[in-house]
Automatic annotation (TrEMBL):
Compartment(s) of residence: Cytoplasm
Record's protein name: FAD assembly factor SdhE
Organism: Candidatus Accumulibacter cognatus
Broad class of where this protein is predominantly found: cytoplasm
Keyword tags: Chaperone, Cytoplasm
One Pfam entry name: Sdh5
GO CC annotations on file: cytoplasm
Gene3D superfamilies assigned: Flavinator of succinate dehydrogenase
Family: Belongs to the SdhE FAD assembly factor family.
């Protein structure tokens, strides 16, 4: 479980991106899906959130595949997020 301070830092990283699409997608994921993730999936999401948009976007849009199986699970969940 992520403590409040680390969750706030993660929220900042998720919603202050170079790409508006990433702001919306990662912010929505953090609010709706992140609380339900298994600990290893949560760690994988944090790693993904630390990536630059130009590195992460190809994973999300499917033009590049994840080499890490747990990150691939999280990316699959990200692809299914519908932004409100």
């Amino acid at each position: 479980m992520v403590d409040r301070e680390n969750l706030n830092r993660l929220r900042w990283r998720c919603t202050r991106r170079a790409m508006l699409e990433m702001d919306l997608l990662l912010g929505e994921f953090l609010d709706r899906i992140f609380p339900m993730l298994e600990p290893e999936q949560a760690d994988a999401f944090v790693t993904l959130a630390d990536m630059e948009d130009l590195e992460l976007w190809p994973l999300i849009n499917g033009s590049r595949q994840c080499s890490d199986a747990v990150q691939a699970e999280v990316v699959a969940l990200l692809r299914n997020v519908r932004v409100k």
